[in-house]
Each structure stands twice: as C-alpha cells, then as structure tokens.
C-alpha cells in the first residue's frame, strides 16, 4: 500500500492533475470535496477520456473522472483487497482507516512487489483485462466492501 497519495479538488484542471501525477510519480488521484470522496482520475482517464476527445488541459477533472470509488479498510487482508480488485476489475483500490479517511492506495503493482503471489496478481490482471459483465453505467455511490 502506498501512503504517498494526493487528494485533489473537483475544480482541478486536467493539466494540473497531470502535473501532480508527473511531479509525484502517481497514476491515480482521488478527488475530494468537503471531506468526502467524489471520484478519482487516472492518467489514462486524462488521456483517453480527455485529451483524445479534444478536451483542453483547462477542463475540470470532473469531466473525465470515475465517480464510482471502490475501497477497502486498512485492516483487511491483502487477499481480501485483491478479491475486491478482481471482482470490480480494477488495478487500484482506495484504503480507508477506521474513521473512513483515506490512508492509502493499494495497487496491483503493490501486491506483486510486496507479496510475491503470482497466482493472486495473475487472477486480478486476468479479471481486469476482461470486458465488464454489464454495459450499464456503474452506480455513482461508494462501494463498501467488508
């Protein structure tokens, strides 16, 4: 789990988000406002949903963000977090503390580097690579996994 994360405001521009990612070697930024998570943006979101569709770097990250945040708690096991990642077909998972405050981000890379379980990381990667099972838009609420 990485504890080196930044939470950005919804009015952050695509350019500002990209600069934060570059300066801090991040590929994922949670978006928060008034002590609540609103969504997240990845480097891929900025490129594919933003720049590639003709958006200017001055557009808000809200235009390209994912508003469905899936998370786990810091006392969950790595295997539990990995199962959530597999089920949700995601490579990064927000980690909350007991007060429901962001305390870290766990990524597929973290699991691979720190736990050396090829089957676990392979299962997640295989699931992430599959098309989503439904063509519907995800509910914008937070997914609570316990």
What does this structure look like?
With 146 residues, the chain is α/β, with parallel strands linked by helices. Helices cover 34% and strands 21% of the residues. The strands form 2 sheets. It has a 4-stranded mixed beta sheet. Strands 1-2 form a two-stranded antiparallel sheet. Strand 4 (92-96) and strand 5 form a beta hairpin. Helix 3 (78-88) runs parallel beside helix 5 (118-129) and helix 4 (108-115) runs antiparallel to helix 5 (118-129).
Name the overall outline.
globular
Radius of gyration: 15 Å
The biggest sheet amounts to: 4 strands, mixed
Q: List the total number of helices.
A: 5
Instruction: Report the span from N to C terminus.
Output: 18 Å
| Binned strand content | 15-25%
Strand order in space, largest sheet: 5-4-3-6
Helix coverage percent? 25-40%
Mean pLDDT: 84
Provide the low-confidence segments as ranges: 134-146
- Secondary-structure element order, as H and E? HEEHEHEEHHE
**How would you classify the helix and strand content by structural class?**
alpha/beta
The beta-strand count equals: 6
What are its keywords?
146 residues; alpha/beta; two-stranded antiparallel ribbon; 5 helices; 6 strands; 21% strand; disordered C terminus
Secondary-structure map:
Blueprint: H1 14-24, E1 28-33, E2 36-42, H2 43-50, E3 70-73, H3 78-88, E4 92-96, E5 102-107, H4 108-115, H5 118-129, E6 143-144
Parallel strand pairs: 3-4, 3-6
Antiparallel strand pairs: 1-2, 4-5
Helix pairs in contact: 3-5, 4-5
């Amino acid at each position: 789990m990485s504890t080196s994360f930044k939470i950005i405001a919804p009015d952050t521009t695509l350019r500002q988000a990209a600069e934060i990612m570059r300066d801090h070697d991040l590929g994922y930024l949670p978006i928060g406002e008034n002590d609540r998570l609103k969504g997240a943006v990845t480097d891929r979101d900025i490129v594919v949903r933003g720049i590639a569709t003709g958006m200017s770097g001055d557009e808000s990250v809200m235009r390209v963000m994912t508003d469905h945040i899936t998370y786990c708690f810091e006392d969950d096991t790595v295997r539990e977090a990995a199962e959530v990642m597999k089920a949700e077909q995601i490579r990064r998972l927000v980690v909350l503390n007991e007060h429901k405050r962001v305390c870290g981000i766990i990524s597929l890379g973290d699991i691979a580097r720190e736990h050396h379980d090829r089957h676990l990381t392979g299962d997640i990667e295989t699931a992430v690579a599959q098309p989503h099972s439904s063509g519907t838009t995800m509910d914008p609420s937070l997914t609570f996994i316990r």
